Structures are given as C-alpha cells and as structure tokens.
Sequence to fold (505 residues):
Amino acid sequence: MRQLLTYIEPWEFSPTVFLVCAGALVLYLRGLKAQRAHGGRVGFWQPLSFFIGLTLDYAVLQTYCDYLAQHMFWVHRLQHLILHHFAPVLIVLAAPGAVLIEGVPQRWRTRWARLLEEHPSVRRMLGAGGRVFRIVQHPLVAPLLFVGLIFYWLTPTVHFAAMLDIRRYRLMNWGMGVDGLLFWWLMLAPRRAQGRAAIGYPIRILIVCLMALPQILLGAYIALHSTVLFDVYGICGRAWAISPLTDQELGGLLTWIPAAMMSGVAMLVVLRRLLQEEGERTPPRSALTAPIADPRLI
Amino acid sequence: MTSAPPALQPPPTCTLRRLLALTAIALALTACSPAQAPFALENVTGLLPQLKFSLTDQDNRPVSAHDYRGKVVLLYFGYTHCPDACPTTLAMLAQSLRNLGPAATKTRVLFVSVDPARDTPEVLKRYVGFFGPQFVGLRGAGDALTALTKRYRVAFHLEPPDRNGYYAVDHSSAVFVFDVNGRARLLGQETDGAAKFTQDLRRLTAG
Fold:
C-alpha cells in the first residue's frame, strides 16, 4: 500500500498543476451535467478522450513519473511526447470548449460579462491577449514554435540547466503542455470552431507533413549519436541502472517515431474533416449519378 | 530603349553614422564590465538553491547548513561501502585540497551518506578520517535525506542484495560547490580532476 502511494503521490507538488487539472475536471463534469439536464446529447467518446488526455497530463507532471522523467532521458522524452503530442491531441479531439464554458457557474458568467461591459481596461487587456494569440497561431509561427520548442529544450546546455533548475524545468513542461494544446487545436479543430484563427485544411496537411521532418531528423540524430549528448543524467544519477547510450537511444527513438506518427494521425483527422465539410457543401446528388448535360464532354 | 529614371537615394551616411555610433557605445559598455575568466568546472550559479539541510554528523551531532557558513562547501553523495566512485572522488578532492595549501582550511567536504543503514556515525567517522580534516560525514534518516537529494535533483537507489547480503547503491557523481554564503556556484565530477577543483576553489576561498 505504501509502495503504491509513492507511485501516485506527487514527487514535487505543484499547486498550479493541481488547480488547473482539478479545475478543468470540475468544470467539465459540471458542463456535462448541465448539458444532460437540458437534453443535450452527451456522447461517450469525446468525454472519454478528454478524461484520458487530462489524466495523462496530470500523471506525467504529478506522480512518480515526474521523478523518473528527471532522472532518465527516455522517460523525459516520453513525458514530453505525452505533454506535447498525445494528451493535447486527445483533449482537442474531445472539443471540450463548449462543455467547459457551460460548466462555469451562471453567476460567474454574468459577472464576467458585466466586467467586460463596464471596464474598457479589461476589454483592452483581452484585445491585447487576442493579438498575441493571433501571432502565436499564425500558420507560419505556430509550427515553427512547436518544433522550435523541441529543439530549444534539447540543446545540451539548455537541457542541462533545465534539469538542474526547478523553475526552468517547470517552465519547460508548462510550455510543452500549453503549446501542444494551441498547436493541435489549430491543426485539428473544425474550421467553424476556430473563428479568425482558422487555416484551410490543405494547408494544415502540408504543415503537419513538413513538421514531421525536423522531428525525425532530431530524433534520429539523438538515437544514432555515438557519444552521450546529455550528461546531466549521469551526473545527477539515473533512476535505475541502464547504459547511458541505451537511455539516449530510447529517448531518440521516442522523439523520432511516435512524434512523427502523430503527424500521420493528424493528417487523417484533417482529411476526414475536409471530406466531411466538402460533403456538406456539395448538393446531395453526386456527380456520378447526375445526368450528363452535354454528351460531348465525355 | 528605356532609360531608367534617376533613382532617388537617401543619403546613406546618416543611418550608417548612427549605426556606427551605436556600435561604439555598445562596445564601450561591454568594455566597462571586467571580463571574469570562466570557472574550470561547470558554473551553476543561479540554477540551484541555497545550501540547506538538517542532518547529523559523524559525532552524531545535529548540524545544518548554517554551521558551514563562511566555508566553501563541497557537497557529495555516496556511501562507505562504495567500491569505486566514492573513494576515487574523495581521494581526488583530498588531492585538490592538498594542492590548495593553507586556503584549504576555508573549505569543507560534506560527504552525505545515501546508505544510512550501514553508515553508522562510527563507520562514517573512520571513513572520512582517511581523507583529511576538512571531510565531514553526514547522515540522515529517510525524509531528511530525500529532502536534500530532491533539493539538488540527484537520484540514488539501493540495488537488490547478493547472497552475502551485500548491496550496492547507485548514486550521483556530482560534487556541488557552494561559496562562503551558501550559494550554489559550481558542479564538478571526479573526471574533472584535482587541478580544476584547486583552481576554482582558490578563487572561491579568496572571496
């Protein structure tokens, strides 16, 4: 029992991570309840996808997994794979926005609406936030930021400092989690849900294909490197005995293969959205069954 | 035949001169701050927190970081049954302190046991005695030890025992160096060698 507890209790408790995860969970559950109450259709897969994504995020940040990630390069890579790729994709596919908003108590919502109405400074702040959001979500900036963050934190000197300094370590993990959500939302959410940030589906397919390439190259470089690139794990001690090069190889493979596979998955999702919306736009009668107006065209 | 219209060129000297002036100012500013030679060991100033712990020493007295203020502290995690890393690292540190000469009195090497079950105060006392008067053996039960290893982000774990009951403990190789105010400054390893330690310790003990 004691053993089990050491695996699930936070290695280094972070009130922010706890509050954000617990807050999201409570809002989502309240939202689901509200939707069910007014007869809304509550699916099965979307809530499941949301819960798994949220649980994964919490687990890699606030359980024994965090300790392992600090002392094993490959677990660190797995942690980032979950924070930056898997969990945000699951959360974005759950499209939890509407449910979360419904989960906010009505009193708060009216208070916020009043605040917005009465204080131009709040509106200005929100406007500035929106401008930053639009820059970060620019079709050129977003993929560069996504790939750039991976490269930045894997620069050996930067990585060394991040693994020693708890503040940098937290910044790194938060950055990965938040950027993952922003980026995959931009890539995977339906256009009509995105407002002004929307990018066309063909462009998205191009982006996810192109961004796989640098991740493959970086992962292969790390996995196939014949000397130890990240010595901090050796200096601070590994979680269990494993050869440093095996550790590096596994970490490189995790950066290389599953990360690139996510591009494939994303492509399929975008393709499906593209076909779905195309289907909605074209008249129900398909071109194949339509009478041919001009036989000469055949 | 088309003749190109006369190009309207702004006088280039203006911006160029401004740029040169700015460069000159920037250069002058950087020249003002004296360039300190980098340390031979890895500089970790600002990355790790202030020295802080509460453990007991080889005479079973409770000690804290406060007791070592005014000394340059070298912090190392190990255990006395260690077959290789610990004795070689401590011998290397002893060598670097001998090279340091009289300034060595301003240093302390804190050897924190990651195996307090076998490293009793008596065992620790005998062990650190081999290396010199600046060596202090520290031990602490579960939480006090974990608090310290967590603080400096190092890992250790006990290997399963063999038939004779002997077990090894995997641990870090880091030697953390703190200045006289308890601020984490450098990180070294056995592989850095005594010379680098002596060189940096000379600078830190000087002030």
